[in-house]
Amino acid sequence: MIVPEGLPLPAYVYDLPALDAHVRRVRRAVRDLELYYAVKANPDPELLRVIEPHVDGFEVSSGGEHAHVRALFPGKPLALGGPGKTDDELRLPAHRIHVESPYELRRLIATGREADVLLRVNPDLPVEGAALTMSGPFGMDEAGVEECLPLFTDRVRLRGLHAHLASGLDAPALIRLAGILLDTAHGEVNLGGGMAVSYADPDTTFDWEEYGRRVPLLRRTGQTVRIEPGRAMTAYCGSYVTRVVDVKRVRGQAYAIVLGGTHHLRTPVTKGHDQPFTVLPTGGGPALEDEPVTIVGQLCTPKDVFARNIVTSLRVGDTVVFGMAGAYAWNISHHDFLMHPKPAFRYVNGSAPTR
Ligand SMILES: *Cc1c(COP(=O)(O)O)cnc(C)c1O
What we know:
single chain; 355 residues; alpha/beta; TIM Barrel; Lyase, Ornithine Decarboxylase, Chain A, domain 1; eight-stranded parallel β-barrel; 10 helices; binds pyridoxal-5'-phosphate
């Protein structure tokens, strides 16, 4: 990671050339599938501009995301999903609408618009090894699908199924699920996102090549297969860079306190992991040496923890670079809690900062 000269801290730094290279790799690997990017992972316009040439469309899950992406890329295909769509959202132009319930389909038809629909299904499949499964309120079971089928008209057309089943699955698990779904579906099948990202081992990435080789072989005649990854597209390109302001030992536990906190980078709290980091020796203050350190931020809550008991050496004034902060990071965080300053934003090799 290149830390730009004179960077005010804390700051988010996005490596746009690295994002471009990564998305090119994904595109090449899944060239036989349609590729959408799930905007909720990170809607930053600078990132979207890098991603856009390499994807067939964007998956948006709210009226806000829809307006944001349409303003940036008028005419780019959008798939509109998400639970609890309002009537206004159901009127938004979209290449595909992912319908979540029979009542939502009735409301969509009642708008009088034309629409091409994928039914979001919530099948009873064993999803082993997932970080988060999407059972519960999402989509519909077999009875819900049955209820929808007779409702379609020549204006509101059934194009196929959408199934975003879990997040954090490796390629073999997602290929297995794809096989089950493609075996039962007709027309279009959107297999969702959920490709695994390992925060414990940042060098191990989802096996896009294996996925892109195997899934097209499972496709039956007449099927179009689309995927909509989010995290595995943008997680790697972002870093949250900050500085150590204090070190101490409390009842034997060593702590490093950094500027900012998890109100800027909520990912480790929501996922319950240690955010990977590197220390740049820019400091000259008191030190902790080669011992298990818990890194916390400036929030007045014991939950403000980036990483627990990681053996490291650092001093006050050192720069700490938290990696893998490009997805579900800034945009899911509770920025206003405690009224600390907002981070700076820098885009390596990109245009001037927009914030
Ligand atoms: C969140 C979401 C995605 C993207 O999931 P990732 O785990 O970030 O790949 C795709 N589709 C739907 C419907 C989602 O809700």
